[in-house]
Design brief:
It contains six helices and seven strands; from the N terminus they run ααβαβαβαβαβββ. The chain has 208 residues and is α+β, with helices and mostly antiparallel strands. Residues 18-199 form the GyrI-like small molecule binding domain.
Length: 208
């Protein structure tokens, strides 16, 4: 039976439209960093190279190599960690050119260094990409976090963050850092802005 993250990991990927507390375990990702407006072509190109690697892993058995512990699964959704440059933090309004991001796609636990190397070699041979050299593979553990499902345009996210901030305050929690994570459950190229579904999440700790 194919592993479906939407079903098996609902607590992490299908939250409610109201803030909640969650503990996020260690996860591993293909990731790439950047700065600037996510509406620019460079951002789309970076997404493309991440998916090329993710599907290279997913399709390895059909290419003649089956990693130890491999199981059929649905490729995980695109995620992004967002921050602002120091200059961007000083502005009263958001300047998207001052955004700092790390976009990523989670990989199953069976993915090892050897599997990663095979994926890179496959993409380099099959579909060479100028940003391939900028992709890294690493683990992240968010731990205690506040999250909620945001439905609607990305530009309306501040309204959801206000609810999350209020929830954190009422539960004696404070943000660990200003950066936050977004998990994109919808394809913005195919879904109208009003129906976009995005998981918003940031790390917290108890107020001392």
């Amino acid at each position: 039976m194919k592993y479906e993250w939407r079903k098996q990991e609902k607590n992490l990927y299908i939250p409610k439209q109201k803030p909640e507390l969650v503990t996020v375990p260690e996860q591993q990702f293909f990731m790439i960093k950047g700065q600037g407006n996510p509406n620019e072509e460079e951002f789309a190109e970076k997404i493309g190279v991440l998916y090329s690697l993710a599907y290279a892993v997913r399709m390895m058995p059909k290419q003649g190599y089956t990693p130890d512990g491999y199981f059929e699964y649905t490729v995980y959704p695109l995620e992004g960690i967002w921050d602002l440059t120091e200059e961007g933090r000083q502005l009263d309004t958001l300047d998207k050119d001052e955004l700092l991001y790390t976009i990523m796609i989670r990989q199953p636990n069976f993915v090892t260094k050897e599997v990663v190397e095979r994926a890179f070699k496959h993409v380099e041979k099959k579909k060479p990409h100028p940003f391939l050299k900028d992709v890294t593979f690493d683990t992240i553990q968010d731990g205690l976090s506040v999250q909620m499902l945001h439905v609607g345009p990305y530009d309306d996210e501040p309204q959801s963050f206000e609810l999350m901030n209020e929830f954190a305050k009422n539960n004696n929690l404070e943000r660990v850092a200003m950066l936050h994570r977004e998990i994109y459950l919808s394809d913005f190229r195919k879904v109208e802005p009003a129906k976009l579904k995005t998981v918003l999440r940031y790390k917290v700790k108890p107020v001392e």
